[in-house]
Amino acid sequence: MRRRLLQSLVPLVILLAIAAALPLANYVASGASRTLFVSRSNDADWFADVAESPLQSGDIATLRQLAVRYHKLYNTPVFIVDVDNRVIATSRSGVNVNEPKLRAELDRTLAGRLNDEPPALWPWRTADMIVSRPVVNNGRVLGAAVLMVPTDDTRADVQRWLLVVLGGLLLSLGLVVLGVVQPVSRWVLKPLQDLDNATHQVARGALDIRVRTDGRAPELRRLGDSFNSMALSLNQSRQREREFVADASHQLRTPLTSARIHIEGLSRLSPTARFALADIDRLGRIVQRLSRLAGSDRPVEGGDAEGMDLAEAVSERLIGWSAVYAADDLELIVGKMQPGRVASELEIDDILDVLLDNAAKYGQPPVEVSVLRDQDEVVLQVRDHGLGLSSNDLKKIGERFWRSTHHREMPGTGLGLAIVRAEATRVGGRVVATPGAGGGLVIEIRLPALDPAPLPMPAEAQHRR
């Protein structure tokens, strides 16, 4: 947004600077042209006065000498013509009075009119400046004194001045952009940046964030108020959800315990009661998961700085699960177990129980469990070889009470992966679900590592080893 605003403001500033610089450049070029014209007009007037007597007497030798001397001194050719446009005296040979521009000036001068002020001397104008004055005696025009004024030096001065103007323009543009445009754009966009930062905070779960609305434009104030109302509603909804789950799990725990005691007594008398006892245990596990889900989204504060070795914790838990899988004739493969320390507050047993239980129920063997190190993350990876999930279903993994359409007829609550995701998020981790290379589903629990990644062993050392 800031870049777009700068892209709009900077061209506007450039146009304004050009609009201010063009009159200044024209003033410099016109002033140089006017100064040269005035100075050479005085010399032309002097030659017109001197030429009056030679044009009447015909003695032009002295006039020719003056013209030659002036040409050598000022590098400006001079020639005198009579009323018939014949060259009477000149400082150089080869003057063509029939050249259109020169002929037009001579016709105007011999008619008794003075030169118009020449146009501005821009660096690309290479023609000489023509300055002529009529030679007059008692109101009668006898001829004209003409100076062919070179403009090279004056145009060079104009070019230097224009470069100075251009440099000043660029410097001014830089100062305006740095000192005015950027602060203005930053000031204009600050409310939107605050709102953008607050939106990212809400997306990360900080629902108590609020944005300032005082002292801002009405539109931004309404937008800020709407955002604050939305964040407040989300926070209240999340709080009500957490309170409901906590209250429900707490209220259900006591009657479930009482019902289990009674049914245990009946199970000695009736085999059917054992099925009711299994259902009571299943309800107890659901209540336990609800209780865990109610508090798992609270971020960890403090904790053990050393953490725990994830590979070691997973290996210990897999000892029991290997026996469970073997009893059901399922194959459990223990893959790579690369060391990596993660937050000790992580309930890795609960996470692994959910993932392995889901793999056994919804996937197909073999199920492979690995702990890998990926730069600054330690990855718990569980892969099965079942049917897998569609791309749409992969996006919904971890939502509460969500279940795939392929598995809705199977027992389950849809809370297992929600608990896993909430537990990983609680310690700064994340859950990534991808389809397996040869089919099935790969679930990765990516957790921030508390220890630096080991450096790769040089090839020579590996060879010696």
TrEMBL record:
Residues 186-239 form the HAMP domain. The chain crosses the membrane at residues 161-181. Residues 247-451 form the Histidine kinase domain. It comes from the Bacteria. Pfam families: HAMP, HATPase_c, HisKA. It catalyses: ATP + protein L-histidine = ADP + protein N-phospho-L-histidine. It is found in: Cell membrane. The keyword ATP-binding does not apply. One of its GO terms (molecular function) is kinase activity. It is an enzyme of class 2 (transferase). Keywords: Kinase, Membrane, Phosphoprotein, Transferase, Transmembrane, Transmembrane helix, Two-component regulatory system. Its EC number is 2.7.13.3. InterPro entries: HAMP_dom (IPR003660), HATPase_C_sf (IPR036890), HATPase_dom (IPR003594), His_kinase_dom (IPR005467), HisK_dim/P_dom (IPR003661), HisK_dim/P_sf (IPR036097), Sig_transdc_His_kin-like_C (IPR004358), TCS_sensor_his_kinase (IPR050428). Its main location: membrane. This is histidine kinase. It comes from Kribbella deserti.
